[in-house]
Amino acid sequence: MWQNNRLDLARMAPLLFLLMWGSGAIFVKAGLQEASVLSFLLVRSLGALLVMILMVVIFKKGEVRSFQLLTWKSWLNIVLVGIFLQVLYQGFFFSSIAYGLSPGMLAIVLGCQPLLTPLLAFERIGVKGYCVLLFGFTGLVIAILGGGKIDVITLPGVISALLAVLAMTIGTILQKRTHVNVIGSVLAQYCVSSFVFTIAVLLFSFEVNPSLQFVFSAIWMILVVSVGAILLLVFMLNNDKASKVAALFFLVPVITYTLDYLVYDTPVTLMTFGGGIMVVASLLTYRKIA
Q: Residue 50: exposed, middle, or buried by beta-carbon count in 10 A (0-12, 13-18, 19+)?
């Protein structure tokens, strides 16, 4: 029974992850209208940490004791994953939006991750694998250009986005090499990020307007993105190649455009549709050959 549930989750994880992760940028932008970057990051991290502690108490009571068996190398790896995924990536991602970088340009920069991951992880995917990934990246660029969402480009925003994609790539590779179960790994990540952001806010300032918009954005980012999507990401990394998981990020903008069309009836251009087809085709092909 447990094995069947695990197989069902493995099949559903990519789609669920994309739906959850793809919603993040919308709620980050909404939340940053009512709070500073560091303040929003602290609220998000502390909220996610609280949820993870509750999950450990309810579902994994022996999780904390299992940490005592880890070697110092395992502890170092866990801390580094927390720094790269939850501190550096999230910090630079939030900053790129705060600096006014357009969603399209941000998506193009972050779309480099599937190309960087096999290189930095030293995964052998062959010429065919890289050609398929390049085809997917081309489709991503075409889809974004068709949506016309690259009108604002700022140097601080681009630099932040580049640092974000580098941090995310390194973080996912390190997570792949972390031999701790899903809940324990995510709990440790938020312990690290909560500590770092608490120190940062104490050094600077805590600026939050507790409006309904901020509260809803924070709750969504905590439950859906920071807990739900991250748990699924770690689960997939524990069960598949880092490059195959990274390739999913090509689809994030496509999912966002689809949600915009279904919810807001936003027009979808032929370029966006064609680019989306290219992305889906490349992803399906790559997951078969990788």
A: middle
